[in-house]
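Quick one: structure tokens for this chain, please?
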Amino acid sequence: MVEDDRRPFRERVPFDAEEILVLAEATRIAEELISDHYKISTSQWKRYRYDIRSLRDLHAEEITDYAFAQIRRYAFPPHDKVLASRPGDYFKICLQDHVIRKALTRDAHLSLLPLATYILTHELIHVVRFARFLQRFDAPEKERDAEEARVHHETIELLKHLKIPGMETVLSAFGAYRFMETFVTERGDGQLSN
């Protein structure tokens, strides 16, 4: 979801250790929901080449002030050696701690666990859909809008019965269709495109 206030942040403060533990729990919940929904076994998750990182672990080009997350697509994980036997897309979910924190500060009724679960569930649905070729990552804008609406609806459906304190508030606050993230891909020539 894109923030309404388009002014850049004066200070981008990464999540602290306690908040990182909450993100880890939100990741566990989101992965479990996605596993059940898409019938993905533990061993099958290894085929989905993705990583979730928060602000502290992001490079400058992976940071944005206008979305809760940014999905970046790379030909290979940046930390891996290029192996001909392991081709394929690698998706990096770049959480924007400062944007998430701003939403939490702005609305005292929101809390990190349900909001992070909402964001991560949404992003992981995208990753699965991209990896299964249900949606092109580099689709034209009109197609992206339709995909965003589909993923948003699917996210709401998966979360609406989840018994996490504050989830109802998150779904109420962010239930209207909005963009959650930006997509950036590294082309074969090392250049980036949206």
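The helical segments are 17-38, 42-45, 97-106, 112-131, 141-159, 167-174.
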